[in-house]
Task: inverse folding
């Protein structure tokens, strides 16, 4: 009798964005390749990140309750291993600098382009292979 072939585990991506249409767009782009979680504010993003330990987080900067930068800082207080990619429609150099200082692993401008998103996720999920 042959043993069943085990499928590789799909990466879990936490999407933190308070705008449902933004989440739905990312869901359409990512759902075939990744398992997804959705946080609607920064506090929820921190809670879900610490509970589920996703393989990566896509974090909006402007959110209610706790903004993305504060959520990133809180996640970093508990884990430096979870890649966090910041995304925003307000792509000022100061936002990028603040996000990098807080420990983000990537920065995307909305509207997110699928190829750019995938490249950023690949770099975050497989850093050793993307540096070669």
Result:
């Amino acid at each position: 009798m042959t043993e069943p072939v085990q499928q590789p585990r799909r990466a879990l991506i936490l999407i933190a964005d308070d705008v449902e249409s933004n989440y739905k767009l990312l869901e359409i782009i990512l759902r075939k390749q990744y398992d997804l979680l959705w946080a609607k504010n920064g506090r929820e993003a921190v809670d879900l990140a610490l509970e589920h330990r996703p393989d990566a987080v896509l974090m909006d900067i402007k959110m209610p309750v706790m903004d993305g930068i504060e959520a990133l800082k809180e996640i970093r207080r508990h884990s430096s291993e979870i890649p966090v990619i910041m995304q925003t429609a307000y792509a000022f150099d100061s936002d990028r600098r603040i996000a990098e200082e807080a420990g983000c692993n990537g920065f995307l401008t909305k509207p997110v382009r699928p190829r750019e998103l995938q490249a950023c996720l690949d770099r975050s999920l497989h850093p050793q292979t993307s540096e070669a």
